[in-house]
Amino acid sequence: MTNQIKPLSYAYSQEVLNLATNELAQKETNDCVVKAIATATGTSYNDAHDFAKNYLMRKDRDGTHLDTFSPNICKEEMNVGKKKVSFDKLSKKRITNRYKVKGEIFDRQKTVKSFIKDNQKGTFIVTVAKHALTVKDGMIIDNVGEEYRPTRKVQGALQVNITGSIEATQLSLF
Length: 174
What we know:
Distance between the termini: 57 Å
Shape: globular
Largest sheet: 7 strands, mixed
Structural class: alpha+beta
Mean pLDDT: 89
Helix content: 25-40%
Order of helices and strands: EHHHHHEEEEHEEEE
Strand content: 25-35%
């Protein structure tokens, strides 16, 4: 018997991030990119909110287009809260399936389900039509109500790698 991850295991971002008590999150709307960054990096909602505001030009209570601003964050290692993170944009080949029909080759966008099937390990921020979510080791982390939509087409994806942490340095006097 092998230890396989269920293809569509699911966690709610509100629970993962404990947003019921977060004042900033309660005031926000259109914050799927913020939640995706927070759940992918393991940082707080507030740290991810600040990151999206500074690097993805996100305005309060207004969404942002991750694909448009991904060049801002894919060029070098970034700090998200107290974590050092690198974001790598996946190539078109990694987010499409290739089919051969009557001798002709077609590339079609992967669905969230087929993306997970091909990416069981690792952490990804995945964009679908007007929405972003996290796929972490084969598990979807997304909003309540989105779990019943595995056939959404993947428009883009960033692989997220935690490369270190920013430790507070304490001054030693002796």
